[in-house]
Structure formats: structure tokens, C-alpha cells
Specification:
Elements: H1 2-80, H2 88-111, H3 114-139, H4 152-170
Helix pairs in contact: 1-2, 1-3, 2-3, 3-4
Length: 179
């Protein structure tokens, strides 16, 4: 009888030990899996933040470029069409275009990066220079005169192209599409 009890006791202890060992391995595997899932979630959130920041940057750049195009179109109109009489409404509208451009520049400053911000400031500065020239013409105008398109068109294009290239680089536009 002692042998039966000993065999039963050994069997019970080995079963409990095997269950404990299996439980320990299962617990360890669950910990590793939970840690990996937390790390993957953290990486996923970080990637989402990067993507969201790129989208916000892109929207800011697009808004700035829209403001720039509006300002340039209006300036081109002033350069190529007879000046309005009286000139004050045209000067006010020109000032509004340049002011909106500078306001959009502050958003670019916030979103960065610094090289895009510098390029945006250069573009806005060039528009402000052109505003100064047009303002002189408008203030001295009696209406009906025709101006000749300024030579700043090439400078506009160079400075604008630099801005677009830097902005494209900042939002990852230089990357090739995944296959």
C-alpha cells in the first residue's frame, strides 16, 4: 500500500510541477507578447504623429502657396492692365494680399522646418519689395497709365522654386512611392 501511495504522490507532484512549469512558460510568453504589442502600438502612434505632422505641414504650405499665387496674380494684373482710378482701392487690395501672405508665413514658421520657413520669408520679402514699387506707382497714378511688367518674374520663379523644393522635401515628397 505504501508503494501505491508513493506512486500516487509522485504522480500528483509531477503533474502539479508540470502544470506550474507550463503556467510559468505561458505567463512569460504572455508578458513578452504584451511588451511587443505595447512597443508596436507606441511605434504606430509615433508613425501616426509623423504622418499627421506631414499633413499639417503640407496644408500650411499649400495655403501659403495659394496666398502667394493670389498676390502674384493681382500684382501681375496691376503691372499689365491700365491702373485704376482712383488707385486707393487697388492699393488697399494689394496691401491685403501682401498682409495675408505674411500671416501665412507665420504658420510656416510654426510648422517648420527652418529652411522652409526661410524660403517662405524670402518669397514674402520679395512680394513686399514688389508691393513697395507698385505702391509708388499707384500713389503717383491718376489712373489709366500702363506699367510694364516688372523684371521680378525670374526672381519670383527662382525663390518660389526654392520654396517648393524645400517644402516638398519637408513633407517627404522626394520619396518614391512604395511598390
Amino acid at each position: 500500500m505504501k508503494d501505491v501511495v508513493a506512486v500516487a504522490l509522485i504522480t500528483a507532484l509531477s503533474t502539479v510541477a508540470a502544470g506550474g512549469l507550463a503556467g510559468a512558460f505561458t505567463y512569460r510568453a504572455a508578458l513578452i507578447q504584451a511588451r511587443n504589442q505595447r512597443e508596436q502600438a507606441r511605434e504606430g502612434r509615433a508613425e501616426e504623429r509623423v504622418v499627421r505632422h506631414r499633413e499639417v505641414r503640407r496644408e500650411a504650405y499649400v495655403r501659403f502657396l495659394d496666398q502667394l499665387l493670389d498676390a502674384h496674380r493681382y500684382m501681375d494684373q496691376l503691372w499689365t492692365e491700365p491702373l485704376p482710378s482712383p488707385a486707393q482701392p487697388a492699393l488697399r487690395q494689394l496691401t491685403e494680399h501682401v498682409d495675408r501672405l505674411w500671416k501665412a508665413t507665420t504658420i510656416i514658421d510654426l510648422e517648420g522646418p527652418p529652411d522652409v520657413s526661410d524660403a517662405a520669408r524670402a518669397v514674402a520679402g520679395l512680394a513686399a519689395e514688389e508691393w513697395d514699387v507698385l505702391k509708388e506707382y499707384l500713389e503717383g497714378s491718376h489712373g489709366g497709365e500702363e506699367l510694364h511688367l516688372s523684371a521680378s518674374g525670374r526672381r519670383r520663379a527662382e525663390v518660389g522654386d526654392r520654396l517648393v523644393a524645400r517644402a516638398r522635401n519637408a513633407v517627404g515628397g522626394h520619396l518614391v512611392a512604395p511598390e
